[in-house]
Amino acid sequence: MIENDQIDGLDGWFQPWNDHNVETRPLVSVGGTYTIYTGRMNEAQLAELGAILLALPGAQSGSMSFFATSESAGLEASFEPSGVTVSGEVSASEWEAWDFAFRSAVEVAKLPRFAA
How far apart are the C-alpha atoms of 63 and 116, rounded to whole Å? Predict the structure, then answer.
């Protein structure tokens, strides 16, 4: 949930690299990295992470885009050695749903993470 200048989901294991500009309302500008050891995952863990991403809210078939429309690029995700990066502009409710679903699925799958 967004209250004032705070965006839930940016605690602990999400490292923001932009200002999460809440002035872009009704969209929220998001940019950061989920601290997951992507470079140390085995094939099964990588497959699980891929399946998680494909099942997230707003997933676009055949891409790492979420909630994309003709008017908005939505979110983009990518695998990096430091984790899974996410950037873009989406509504507050879309961000909350995506962030919660991603973190919950990663925790259930017990994918390797490093402390933030």
Answer: 27
CA distance readout (Å), 4 to 20, 69, 72, 99: 12, 27, 24, 19
What DSSP assignment string belongs to 31-85? EEEE-B-GGG--HHHHHHHHHHHHHSTTBPTTSSEES--SS---EEEEEETTEEE
Cα angle for residues 93, 52, 106 (degrees, 5° grid): 85
Interior/surface letters 30-51, b for 16+ CB within 10 angstroms, e for the rest: bbbbbbbebeebeeebeebbee
- What's the pLDDT at 87? 92
Q: How far apart are CA 18 and CA 2, in angstroms?
A: 16
Query: DSSP code of 113?
Result: B
pTM, rounded to two decimals: 0.79
Tokens 């509504």 — which residue? 91
Condensed to tens digits (0 to 9), the pLDDT of residues 33-91 reads 888 888 889 999 999 999 999 999 999 988 899 999 887 789 999 988 888 999 998 98
In whole angstroms, what separates CA 102 from the centre of its chain? 7
